[in-house]
Design goal:
- Electron-transport protein of unknown function.
- The chain has 129 residues and is mainly α.
- It is built from six helices and no strands.
């Protein structure tokens, strides 16, 4: 169990101890999402999964308000920026769905949702990275 807890504890510590300036970057939010995703993939402990999914949700919400390099210079109300924000709406919705499954003790179903979340992430990376 200790080996399984180490990535989660590292990620949580990184998220909590990050200097404020770094915490405000989109890159930092992406690293938080990536690290906690690994924790979610590796863990079967409901408490650990719930904590990691909540960290992911917070990072996704912060990232949603930021602008990726590919969209710098686009007006905030442009179709491209609206689609970017919609992608995060979908990601947050999937995280919430996984949280519901974890709270119900349906870890396998939560893992399936996380696999769909990875598809959303991959599509977003192709478009905005």
């Amino acid at each position: 169990m200790q080996k399984k807890s180490l990535p989660f504890l590292f990620t949580m510590g990184l998220a909590l101890c990050t200097p404020p300036m770094m915490a405000e970057t989109l890159s930092r939010d992406m690293k938080t999402l990536s690290g906690t995703l690994r924790t979610v993939e590796q863990s079967t402990d409901p408490v650990q999964l719930k904590d990691a999914l909540n960290v992911m949700r917070a990072a996704a919400q912060k990232a949603q308000g930021k602008t990726p390099r590919k969209l710098r210079g686009y007006p905030q109300q442009s179709p491209e920026m609206q689609q970017y924000r919609h992608t995060y709406d979908r990601l947050i919705q999937q995280i919430d769905e996984a949280l519901i499954y974890v709270e119900q003790g349906q870890i396998d179903d939560a893992k399936k949702v996380v696999n769909n979340l990875k598809i959303t992430r991959d599509l977003a990376h192709k478009t905005y990275r």
